[in-house]
Amino acid sequence: MKPASLEPILAGAVAVIAWLAVLSSAPAFIRTPAAVVLLGVLPGYALLKALGLDKSSVIVERALLVVGASLSLVVVLSVGIGLLGAELRGPVVATVLTGAILGMLALRLLVDWRKPSEDASLEDAAAQWVMPHVRVRRSAIAWVLGAVLAVGALTIAVVSSQSAQSDVVQFWATRAPGGATVGIRSNVPTASTYRFTIGPTGADIMSRDVTVASGQEWQAFVAFPASWPPGATVVANLYANGDTIPFRAVWLTPQPSPT
Amino acid sequence: MNDRRDQLAPQEAIVAVRTDVNGHHAKLRSQTPFFVRAHRVPSAYSLGWIALTSGLGLFVVSLADLRARLGLDSSEPLFWIGLVILVLPIALVLWSGSATRAERIGAVILLGLGLYGVRVCYSPGTFVFFDEFSHWRTAIDIGSTGALFTANPLQPTSALFPGLESFTAVFASLAGLRIDQAALLVIGAARIVVVVGLYLFFERASGSARVAGLATLMYAANQSFLVFDQQFAYESFALALAATALAALAARSEEDRSRSWRLAVVAMVAIAATVVTHHVTSYALAAFLVLWVLVWSLDRRPVRTEASPIAAAAFSAAAAGAWLLILAPAVIEYLVGILHGGLQQVLQLMGGRISIRPLFTGRDGVVAPVAERAVGYLATFLTLAALPAGLWTILRSGRARPLTLTLGLVALAYPASLVFRLTTAGAEMANRVNAFTFVGVAFVIAIWGASLMAPRISAAPRILLAGASVVVLAGGVIAAVPPWMRLPYPYRAAADTRSFTTEGIDAAQWTLDKLGPHRAFVTDRSNRQLLGTYGYQDPLPEPVIAQILLSTQPVVPRQLIAQSHVDFVLVDRRLSTAVPLVDGYVMRTEMGGVRPTSPLDPAALAKFDTMSNVSRVFDSGNIQIFDVSGIR
To answer: Could you report the predicted ipTM of this complex, rounded to two decimals?
Structure first.
């Protein structure tokens, strides 16, 4: 009998910490790495450990199998949970997955405990995961420049795609008991004042000036006066900057509708 | 001789490592491949410089995107320059005889990441490709209901293969991210797994890091690689799972049975995940494994080195068949429809009943520039020319393994698929199989290429071959991505990626906010995707929509609105400004299947203004929403 390897125990501890992190209400920058480790690394790592494949492959192959098997295991587990009729929720999958990871690691510990070998020392385990020697040399600066350029490319993409947003003004009216709900949403860059009118064709029309800040929404209930003929179509128009021609128009027909 | 290239170096071929009975690592053998006389010289390459050129290439592509967003003409040359800066140095490393294995692996990872970066820069953080919205809807359904197989009104088959969407929904939920943010990471990870998985698969199949690197480079030249298989869609993810399965299966050997069955377990988990993720990928994987079994069973060599693929093939075929018949029988009609359409048109073409589809011509009738056509034809010619050379290299060795021969047989499907490209319906089918046939094509070309590099390759031919690789990759981009779609140009009606605008997104979000989810909607092809995701509405099937939306007469649409229990119609007035660049305003067979030569009649969209009992409840300028529930 030999002393148990610390590596599966450490991996199990990492799994539990990641599980606690993803179930917490921590911000995304904490939960995202935890979720990446819990879903993208540990399941495959534990499977390879349980199968005894953790030492028998070269580093790249092992890394591929760890990530590929992780993705596969999570897919199979998630779909399996769904097929069993249970609710396919993140916390459920995380809990079952953590249990499966701990189970596979425990299996490995059990095998190691019973196997009279001497290959599972912490030093050996650490050595397995050391990347093969890669010459850093002067090319480190090229790596940094490459990364900077890639980040620059993404920054340009993000900024330019955001600046391509349109400046649309939305205008709506939906039927409500005794009247209508009228609303304006403005995406123009500055606060703008609009005038809207509402009323049935050929009857008294109500009007009102509304100032809406950029990216904001204004909405109000407009009660229909009794003087308005029942059964008439009610038209609402929206005017901008003192224009006399409406640039948005909606109308409500007399028929009752779900809105 | 002072030329360092002439120095013999440690073996270039991979060294198989396994664990002996005591758990010790042992170098088993140096697998000098039969087609490579390996003479390695000290590397003149540094991954750092390749990372730098990759970053620079991506930066230039991003500048091209920026120009396109601003609506500036002549942005495309910048795109091509960026792509060449990104790919050519990587190709030079992979065509080099002196690069180390680590450098080759690093190069293929940079290739995968760099090309994924091109997709990310196209539309950072938001979905923009048509199919992405369909799969996003499935992920939204899983996230909101916690159940699988919720009917997806955008693409019913997506819900029947929920591997990608369930993974993404769970990841998003646990990471505290939005689905689109999570999708960016999931597809990025899948991309790395695809290139590394294929590299290892090719390496095991050939016994050569050179072949593996070249084959992965050539695989990236398949027409699906740059766009179709980088989008948030089930095939993108399933390819990663299938690559994992293939890498695990190829790593098995007859010499180490204990390790073999353990790797088979890993492979079967990956196969199972593939089966629940994407139909075509799982069938292609099963077909490949069955073919491998057939070739393997015919292997009469006294000593076999490859472990039997029978169990994996049987499991793959059984799992894919069971999923199809028990849980996803609707897919049969979907796939048969695609197959039937393609085969029918090919037969008609051979019988002289239809003519060849105009190649390099857009749906709006615009013919591609001469340079593009030249590159497209040259890419196909180079691929076809290299295939026989590669197959001959395999066969003349007399020592080809079953896996090598199987890949050679898969490559033969490529010339056959070209016939389908000559027809309209067949072209879609050929596009779909490209990602699979190219596994064989890439391998065979790489074997031929590696044989050219033995014992060493001088600078001029290497640059020529690397340039040829870039031409083949560019040919794939030209064939798969029409010019109007290559860059994020401003809005254009009926043009998918260019038709998803902020105004449409805002309108869709308004419907969710003010009308609630799951309302029965009629709208065009692009807004349908936005309503089904941002709005969480339930657009009607396309044939019904086409009849209601595109008719200039109100009588039939009115009847259909009543019969189909339509709640709302979203009208985008911009539809009447252009002819479709895609399958139609709504679907391919709309308006009798006749491709329009002039934009949609504005009267078709204006008819809702004058319909009785119809309210216009929303107006944002180009988009109006009509409440038609009053005429039900």
So the answer is: 0.86
